[in-house]
Every structure is written in C-alpha cells, then in structure tokens.
C-alpha cells in the first residue's frame, strides 16, 4: 500500500517575489490562519482572514531599515520587520526603508509604510550615502526606535554608523526583544544582559519568528532621496573595490549558497559538472559517490563530511542516508531528483522530482544550450526551473 503523504494543493500558500505560489508547511497562510473542524471523521480546513494590525491614527513611528537582494528581503530582514510589528502598539506605525529594489508584499511582512530606494545596490559599498539616506528618513519620520538586522552584509554596519553619527543609544546582537526591553548574550555567551529599549536595535538572526497573525497597511510611499550614490562615489572618502567573483567550484561548501550534489545515481560526472558550472553552483557529493572515486573527499557532504547551509540544495541520485541528511539539515530549500519516491531524501526535500537523475541532468544541459543559442543566459535556465518548481508545488 502506498503510504506516501501528499500535499493538499488547497492548503494555505504564500506568493513569492517572483509571483510563484508556495504551499505553507505550518498553519499560517497568505490569507490567514487555518481553522480546523471535523465532519464524519474527516478534517476540514478553511481559512480565516488575517486582521490588520491597527487602524488607529499613528502617533509615533518605528523604522526598520534593510537591504534587499534581487527584489526581496532575506529571512533576517523579515524577522527584524516582524519584531517591529510585534512590539508596536495600536498608535504606532511601522515604516520599512528598503535599500534597493523591492517587489515583495510589505503588508504581509507587517509594514504599514514602504519606502524603496532603488538607486542603492547591495553589491555596491556606499556607506556614507546610505547613512545620509537613513538620516534623512529619520529626520522626516522621527521614529522612536530604529531596527536593523545585525548582519555582515551592510545592515549591521549601517546601524552602527548611524548610532555613532547621531550619538544614539544602541544595542547590538539582540536575541530577545519586547516593547519594554532588549537582551543579549555577553561574556562569551555565559551571561545574559538586558536594558530598556534603545533608539537603535540591531537584531540577531532567528530572534523572532517572521510569521505574523496580522498584516500591515502596506502603503507604498513615494519618497525622494536627494543623492545619487553613483555620482557621489568619486567625492566619497570610501572607494568601492567591487566584489571579486570566483568560480563556484572553488568555493568552500560551508560558504556556498547554491549547491548541486551527486549520488550513486549520477554516472556521467562531466555532464553533472557542466550543469553545475551553468547554474553557478558549488559541487557536493554523497559518501557513496566519493568512495567510488567520482569526487574528491573534500566534496563529501554529511555527518562524516561537510555540513552545509545553502539556500538551495539540489540532490541528484542521492537516496538520503541519515548521515547525509545530517549534513544538509540547515539548508533552506532542498530539491531531490530520484527514481525512488520513498527514498529518505524525499521526506526532507521541499520538492521531489521522480525521475532518473542522469536523464534530468542531460535535459537541463540541453535547456541551457538552447537558452544560450537563443541569446539567453544561465539566469534564464534558473527562471524556467523556478517556474517549473512553482507549478509542481
């Protein structure tokens, strides 16, 4: 008897920045909470609309600033925005300031107002221009608190620069927050320090659940910043040396954000490596593939190899032994290509393609060749793959 659990296509879903539908794995959905009842022993689900957080006239503002990447906020930024929405009272408005283009749903994320600064690029280092933009926004809205993700990709640096320039009270690496206080670990994580909510809060990752039981107003504000980072770069004391890009195959697996991994089901290693190069992905392998001599030992992923934290992990022909699953437990999205629908990797995967791994690799390489001959790029292949993933979800 087939005991595989199927995902109900009528379950709540969210819409990504690319317009793709994603089924929500918890009880929260884009349309709201799930209400469950039983009828004749069968569980019935229907959606309850989320309520707007507040409709009161705003008397104060909490400002959240973050950089966007390819039109979306990352998990850390969404957590920071959720924190602001959770500590805001009925008379407080949550304003989101995004450095870069943003195509997401600000209301679903908890923002009442959205200010987008598309002239800024996360890949460009323009600290003084970003500081001036943040200071101008603070002058316009006079927020009682400013929240930023405490990361190493620009937000944490910007928050510290602003706090120093404005002589504002600040708390960094915040792991606990409510309307009255913040707290952080000190003394090598052996002690816990708390203080009243400061003017600038730099929130640590995973301190807040980004799923909210309400939504914000999501009003997009046309706000002009009188400063062009490109034109002011020559006058700045900071010189951007740009980002040095290296071949993804040379990147350490622990640092890779996109990994394609081969198992026993991959027989044509050169074709697999061509696909990895086309997608711009780092190469990993299962222990079986390494033991067979197809890949070097430094490519092995699992409890006895490397533990990875990729945003996207595609496993070709890997059954998913417990040691391998241990190595990918922190990956955000796992896609499995395997002939066996009951393989352990299928239970871990967010998307499983029931197909021969070698045939799938060949088909993707053909699609990439067709895209190149039509004047496209590897991005076109990624976009088509994402659309296919959305249809399968």
UniProtKB/TrEMBL annotation:
<dbReference type="InterPro" id="IPR014729">
    <property type="entry name" value="Rossmann-like_a/b/a_fold"/>
</dbReference>
<comment type="similarity">
    <text>Belongs to the ETF alpha-subunit/FixB family.</text>
</comment>
<dbReference type="InterPro" id="IPR014731">
    <property type="entry name" value="ETF_asu_C"/>
</dbReference>
<dbReference type="InterPro" id="IPR001308">
    <property type="entry name" value="ETF_a/FixB"/>
</dbReference>
<dbReference type="Pfam" id="PF00766">
    <property type="entry name" value="ETF_alpha"/>
</dbReference>
<dbReference type="InterPro" id="IPR014730">
    <property type="entry name" value="ETF_a/b_N"/>
</dbReference>
<protein>
    <submittedName>
        <fullName>Electron transfer flavoprotein alpha subunit</fullName>
    </submittedName>
</protein>
<keyword id="KW-0249">Electron transport</keyword>
<dbReference type="GO" id="GO:0033539">
    <property type="term" value="P:fatty acid beta-oxidation using acyl-CoA dehydrogenase"/>
</dbReference>
<dbReference type="InterPro" id="IPR029035">
    <property type="entry name" value="DHS-like_NAD/FAD-binding_dom"/>
</dbReference>
<keyword id="KW-0813">Transport</keyword>
<feature type="domain" description="Electron transfer flavoprotein alpha/beta-subunit N-terminal">
    <location>
        <begin position="63"/>
        <end position="211"/>
    </location>
</feature>
<feature type="domain" description="Electron transfer flavoprotein alpha subunit C-terminal">
    <location>
        <begin position="253"/>
        <end position="329"/>
    </location>
</feature>
<dbReference type="GO" id="GO:0009055">
    <property type="term" value="F:electron transfer activity"/>
</dbReference>
<dbReference type="GO" id="GO:0050660">
    <property type="term" value="F:flavin adenine dinucleotide binding"/>
</dbReference>
<dbReference type="Pfam" id="PF01012">
    <property type="entry name" value="ETF"/>
</dbReference>
């Amino acid at each position: 008897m087939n005991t595989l659990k199927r995902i109900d296509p009528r379950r709540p879903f969210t819409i990504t920045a690319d317009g793709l539908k994603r089924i929500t794995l918890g009880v929260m959905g884009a349309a709201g909470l799930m209400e469950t009842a039983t009828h004749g022993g069968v569980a019935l689900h229907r959606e309850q609309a989320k309520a707007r957080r507040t409709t009161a006239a705003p008397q104060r503002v909490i400002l959240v600033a973050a950089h966007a990447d390819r039109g979306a906020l990352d998990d850390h930024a969404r957590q920071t925005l959720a924190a602001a929405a959770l500590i805001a009272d009925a008379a407080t408005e949550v304003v989101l300031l995004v450095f870069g283009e943003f195509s997401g749903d600000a209301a679903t994320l908890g923002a009442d107002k959205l200010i987008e600064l598309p002239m800024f690029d996360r890949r460009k280092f323009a600290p003084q221009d970003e500081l001036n933009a943040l200071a101008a926004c603070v002058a316009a809205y006079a927020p009682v608190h400013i929240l930023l993700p405490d990361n190493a990709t620009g937000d944490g640096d910007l928050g510290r620069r602003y706090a120093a320039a404005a002589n504002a009270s600040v708390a960094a690496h915040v792991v606990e927050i409510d309307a009255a206080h913040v707290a952080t670990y000190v003394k090598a994580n052996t002690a816990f320090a708390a203080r009243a909510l400061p003017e600038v809060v730099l929130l640590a990752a995973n301190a807040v659940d980004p799923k909210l039981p309400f939504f914000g107003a999501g009003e997009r504000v046309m706000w002009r910043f009188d400063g062009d980072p490109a034109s002011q770069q020559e006058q700045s004391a900071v010189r951007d040396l740009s980002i040095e890009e290296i071949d993804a195959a040379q990147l350490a697996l622990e640092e890779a954000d996109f990994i394609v991994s081969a198992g026993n089901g991959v027989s044509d290693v050169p074709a697999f490596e061509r696909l990895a190069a086309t997608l711009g992905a780092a190469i990993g392998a299962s222990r079986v593939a390494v033991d067979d001599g197809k890949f070097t030992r430094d490519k092995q992923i699992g409890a006895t190899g490397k533990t990875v934290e990729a945003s996207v992990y595609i496993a070709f022909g890997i059954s998913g032994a417990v040691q391998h699953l241990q190595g990918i437990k922190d990956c955000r999205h796992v896609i499995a290509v395997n002939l066996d629908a009951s393989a352990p990797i299928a239970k871990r995967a967010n998307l499983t393609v029931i197909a021969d791994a070698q045939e799938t690799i060949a088909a993707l390489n053909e699609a990439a060749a067709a895209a190149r001959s039509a004047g496209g790029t590897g991005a076109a292949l990624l976009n088509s793959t994402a659309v296919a993933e959305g249809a399968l979800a």
